[in-house]
Amino acid sequence: xxxxxxxxxxxxxxxxxxxxxxxxxxxxxxxxxxxxxxxxxxxxxxxxxxxxxxxxxxxxxxxxxxxxxxxxxxxxxxxxxxxxxxxxxxxxxxxxxxxxxxxxxxxxxxxxxxxxxxxxxxxxxxxxxxxxxxxxxxxxxxxxxxxxxxxxxxxxxxxxxxxxxxxxxxxxxxxxxxxxxxxxxxxxxxxxxxxxxxxxxxxxxxxxxxxxxxxxxxxxxxxxxxxxxxxxxxxxxxxxxxxxxxxxxxxxxxxxxxxxxxxxxxxxxxxxxxxxxxxxxxxxxxxxxxxxxxxxxxxxxxxxxxxxxxxxxxxxxxxxxxxxxxxxxxxxxxxxxxxxxxxxxxxx
Length: 348
Fold this sequence. Notes:
The chain is of the alpha/beta class. It is 35% helix and 22% strand. The strands form 3 sheets. A 7-stranded parallel beta sheet has the order 8-9-7-6-12-13-14, sandwiched between helices. Strands 2-1-3-4-5 form a 5-stranded parallel beta sheet, with helices on both faces. It has a two-stranded antiparallel sheet with strand order 10-11. Residues 5-122 form the Response regulatory domain.
């Protein structure tokens, strides 16, 4: 198999050097060029035809978002966003992921070395090279009236996602009604970006979406997104009350927060009064947890291969029998809401 050719785009020569050095440690990756601004990058993309581009969020002459739009419209190429650890950088990164960037990493911040900040970059680049690209403006839309005449049946909904998950989750959650089932989501994402992502989901949906805080009561109409970083989101039942729990914990399947940890907690808290969905992402996090949910009697759904950016996590879950039904992302809202509704119980 030929090596993955990468173009590194960043206005800082130092950062270009750091990213290049990190990528060159992987024998399956070849850094074929670099550029200091979008104008240089445009010519380099034409000349070098890279498999993947790493793109700085904030650059001179043209913003990362403007340049990403041009790439996706004129020469669709997998892009990994390299973001500053600031609120502005986070907001811009979420916008880029919604536009079709495959994944993101944060630049080294105070007390964080380049090795730590970019520890997952090589795997993200290789996953991006295998990802499915959609033309700009061709983002999936939820099926019409997915929320319909929704009447909650008391089920809890748990969703796990990773690479490509920003676009997928926007598609699913945008169809949720104001009285949606209590919903918990673990999306693999750096800590700096989850608050911005929760805000973006909240604006897109009739439901209320927030970054989960420890002890928050699980309520209809509420969606709780796991904070990124070194904490896990779980669901706990005590004294008859369901609550979201956010606690520090070692990575599971290489991730903190972990989808498996979330799904396992749902099994313990509510058993068969749950619905699980596993969406696009690389790796296998969530597969065993979703199987435990299905074995406990919960309804379980997986995103189909054709609509995934990376068909890794859903494939792993499907292959071990954890997925009751596969569906394109445009139909996922209808399926999970149906399984949480008194109307149709998920037979959409």
